[in-house]
Amino acid sequence: MEEFFVAAVFIAIPWIILHYITKWKTASSITTDDEALLDELYHLAKRLDERMDTVERLVADDHSDFKPARLIHDQEVDNQKLREIDRMLAEKKGAMK
């Protein structure tokens, strides 16, 4: 009985703790599939933003009383954030190759 207790304390309990720590760490990391999906979604969002700018510009040309619901088109503050994200993505892709 004493051998079982010693085995449980020194082998089983640390093994269980380390097992779940490893599971926790692997579950919280982003996989390459997740990264590719995020990259694809980012590029899709940029394309949709450009399309929305075009639609708002066309509607504003047709209707003088039209006020765009969005913020200012092609605002430098927004573009700066997008350039920073583009730079980070380029660095990450460069580091991966």
UniProtKB/TrEMBL annotation:
GO terms for biological process: phage shock; regulation of DNA-templated transcription. The gene is pspB. Keywords: Membrane, Transmembrane, Transmembrane helix. Pfam families: PspB. The keyword Membrane applies. NCBIfam families: phageshock_pspB. The chain crosses the membrane at residues 6-22. It comes from the Bacteria. The keyword Transmembrane applies. Coiled coil: none annotated. It comes from Parapontixanthobacter aurantiacus. This is Envelope stress response membrane protein PspB. Signal peptide: none annotated.
